[in-house]
Amino acid sequence: MTEPHPVGLSIRGGVKVYPGTRALKGVDFDLRMGAVNVLVGENGAGKSTLMKVIAGVEALTAGQISMNGQPVQIASKSDAVALGIGIVFQELNLFPNMTVAENIFIAREPLRLGFDIDARAQSDAARALMRRLEHDIDPDTPLGTLRIGQQQIVEIAKALAQNARILILDEPTSALSASEVEVLFRVIADLKAQGVGIVYISHRLEELIRIGDYITVLRDGTITGARAMEGVDIPWIVRAMIGEGSKEFPRTEAPRFGAEVFRAEDVCLPRLGGGFTVDHLSLSVREGEILGLYGLMGAGRTEFLECVMAQHPHATGRYFIAGQPLTERDVAGRIARGLALIPEDRKRDGLVQIMSIRENITLSALSRFARLFHLNLDLRAEAASALDFVKRLTIKIASPDNPVSSLSGGNQQKVVIGKALMTDPKILLMDEPSRGIDIGAKAEVFRTMRRLAAEGLGILFVTSDLDEVLALSDRILVMADGRLTGEFPSGAAPADVIAAATRHKLKDHAA
Ligand SMILES: Nc1ncnc2c1ncn2[C@@H]1O[C@H](COP(=O)(O)OP(=O)(O)OP(=O)(O)O)[C@@H](O)[C@H]1O
Ligand SMILES: [Mg+2]
Question: Which domain holds residue 329?
Answer without folding.
Answer: 258-338+426-511
